[in-house]
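Sequence design from tokenized structure. All designs in this work follow the same two-part layout: the structure record, then the generated sequence. An example of the structure record is given first.
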């Protein structure tokens, strides 16, 4: 499939899959969306409440969510064990064209961001004091986590192009992975997605979405 780097409305870049007319992040602002969905309505729930968070990202992609999580965790001293699942890793050429370090004014994190991508798969990698990363290259439906995750960033491609990643079967795996009171956040807001989450036992709430999107979803394992 044809892929290209595009610039989103907030000046940050993302990857577009032209055949699908689908992007890794919102065209209305990649960094804005990531902060709104995954930090404001996800990670911030655990700030000052847990010394270490077990975090699973479904769709590691460009590493933007991991980078902003590292930046935010470094501010509060929160420890993070970060697991990123990605079936099709981004290429070195694509990574070289992403501008997140510049747009986030995060030059101090550039070496650690590069290490996130250059480091080995299937093995824990120390990124900084208190932040470890383990990347897993597999289909999301092959995860085997069980009652060990505090927070899931669900950042798969949208149901319009990959409906098989937004089903009851998939959310059963997510529910199983989470600890009691664990949280899943996603940019998605479709009724069918919300119902699939509810069918497996999640308590689901609609929240205001990021720029360009009216709503998003947050689900809690009660």
């Amino acid at each position: 499939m044809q892929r290209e780097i595009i610039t989103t409305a907030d000046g940050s870049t993302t990857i577009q899959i032209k055949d699908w007319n689908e992007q890794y992040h919102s065209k209305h602002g990649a960094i804005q969306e990531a902060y709104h969905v995954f930090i404001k309505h996800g990670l911030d729930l655990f700030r000052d409440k847990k010394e270490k968070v077990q975090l699973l990202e479904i769709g590691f992609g460009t590493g933007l969510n991991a980078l902003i999580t590292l930046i935010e965790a470094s501010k509060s001293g929160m420890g993070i064990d970060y697991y990123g699942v990605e079936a099709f890793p981004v290429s070195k050429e694509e990574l070289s064209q992403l501008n997140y370090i510049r747009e986030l004014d995060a030059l101090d994190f550039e070496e650690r961001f590069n290490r996130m991508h250059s480091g080995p798969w299937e093995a824990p990698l120390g990124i900084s004091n208190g932040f470890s990363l383990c990347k897993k290259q597999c289909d999301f439906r092959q995860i085997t986590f069980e009652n060990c995750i505090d927070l899931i960033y669900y950042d798969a491609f949208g149901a319009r192009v990959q409906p098989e990643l937004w089903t009851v079967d998939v959310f059963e795996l997510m529910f199983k992975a989470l600890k009691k009171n664990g949280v899943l956040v996603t940019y998605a807001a479709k009724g069918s997605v919300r119902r699939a989450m509810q069918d497996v036992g999640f308590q689901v709430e609609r929240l205001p979405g990021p720029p360009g999107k009216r709503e998003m979803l947050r689900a809690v394992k009660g």
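The two ends are 40 Å apart (CA to CA). We note this feature because it recurs in several other targets discussed in the main text.
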